[in-house]
TrEMBL record:
Species the sequence originates in: Acinetobacter lwoffii
Name by which UniProt lists this protein: Phage gpG-like protein
Pfam families the UniProt entry points to: Phage_tail_S
InterPro entries for the chain: Phage_virion_morphogenesis
Source organism superkingdom: Bacteria
Length: 165
């Protein structure tokens, strides 16, 4: 070969980052836990603001109107039941409250026996043939959640993978 160019580069910083990336498996539960805590907080905030994932206000419930309360916050059971679970490949946020899907997606409640459903609210009884629960979404990622997740991931990479390199 009559002509050759040899380029030498110091690859030690890249090798150090690759070594750190190799330790990601031992760190990812911490990352997923932080993301889960942030998303859990976002769900809790939707209850406090009474808004869905898109920022639209929930339809005010009959009970809240009659008692001057807050929709889906009478006892706080559902709001306080949301938690996150770290998985090997991510994180899930949810609740074990059995009626949560009906309140999230909406539902039509029909009488189990007889023609009417009887509700007691504030000492008053009301008989209806059906009760329609409008959807009041609590779960899902909005634009702020997406930014939060990206910020958490970026900070995590910076702190654990780049600075440690």
């Amino acid at each position: 070969m009559a002509f050759a160019v040899t380029i030498q580069a110091d690859s030690s910083p890249i090798e150090a980052v690759l070594k750190q990336l190799g330790s990601f498996d031992s760190l990812k539960a911490q990352l997923f836990d932080e993301i889960g805590a942030g998303l859990e907080s976002s769900v809790h905030n939707r209850f406090l603001t009474g808004t869905d994932v898109d920022g639209n206000p929930w339809k005010i419930s009959w009970r809240a109107r009659m008692q001057g309360g807050e929709t889906l916050r009478d006892t706080g059971r559902l709001m306080n039941s949301y938690t996150h679970n770290v998985l090997s490949s991510g994180v899930e946020v949810g609740t074990d409250v059995v009626y949560a899907p009906h309140l999230h997606y909406g539902a039509t409640i029909l009488p189990k026996n007889g023609q009417y459903i009887t509700f007691a609210v504030g000492g008053q009884y009301r008989k209806v043939k059906q009760s329609i629960l409008p959807p009041r979404t609590q779960l899902g990622l909005d634009a702020e959640d997406e930014v939060m997740v990206l910020d958490i991931v970026g900070s995590f990479i910076d702190e654990h993978l780049l600075r440690g390199a």
